[in-house]
Specification:
This is SnoaL-like domain-containing protein. InterPro entries: NTF2-like_dom_sf. The chain is α+β, with helices and mostly antiparallel strands. The protein has a single domain (5-126), classed as Nuclear Transport Factor 2, Chain: A (Roll). The protein has helices at 5-25, 28-33, 51-62, and strands spanning 35-43, 47-50, 68-80, 85-96, 100-113, 116-125, 133-135. Strands 1, 2, 3, 4, 5, 6 and 7 form a seven-stranded mixed sheet that branches. The radius of gyration is 15 Å and the shape is globular. It starts with a helix and ends with a strand.
């Protein structure tokens, strides 16, 4: 059954809030389990990671960085397969406590299994194609 725009936005907002809350706990298992077992994580021009084990390595590295606060700015949201897939496209800023800011375009696809959505496809691309982390005063 298709979702209304209101239901779609609420579901995606809740998924983003859930991930932010999980990430802030720094609980690696909870973070990794947010992803689908066959998830793909794409850092355009740099790397592609498949499955939870490879994503675990990326998240372990991210957790060594100073505390971060992601802020998403959705631009386009839609569903496919009568709600089996939810797609969220937009811009993201990750603000670190040390003043660094990482900005990128993002595309996230969530897949519903057993009544729960998992992050199935995550693609991030900086505007220059390189790491875009800079200190903001």
């Amino acid at each position: 059954m298709s979702l209304t725009n209101e239901e779609l936005n609420k579901t995606l907002d809740n998924l983003q809030a859930d991930f932010k809350q999980i990430y802030e706990t720094k609980d690696l298992e909870q973070i990794v389990n947010f992803y689908h077992p066959q998830a793909v994580m794409i850092d355009v021009g740099r790397s592609v990671k498949y499955g939870r084990e490879e994503i675990r390595k990326v998240m372990q590295e991210w957790l060594t960085h100073p505390p971060a606060h992601p802020v998403s700015h959705p631009e386009k949201r839609f569903e496919a397969g009568d709600g089996e897939f939810l797609i969220d496209i937009g811009m993201s800023e990750v603000k670190f406590d040390n003043g660094m800011v990482f900005k990128c375009k993002y595309e996230c696809i969530y897949k519903k299994e057993d009544g729960k959505y998992f992050l199935y496809h995550e693609k991030n691309e900086t505007e220059s194609g390189e790491t875009s982390c800079e200190k903001k005063e």
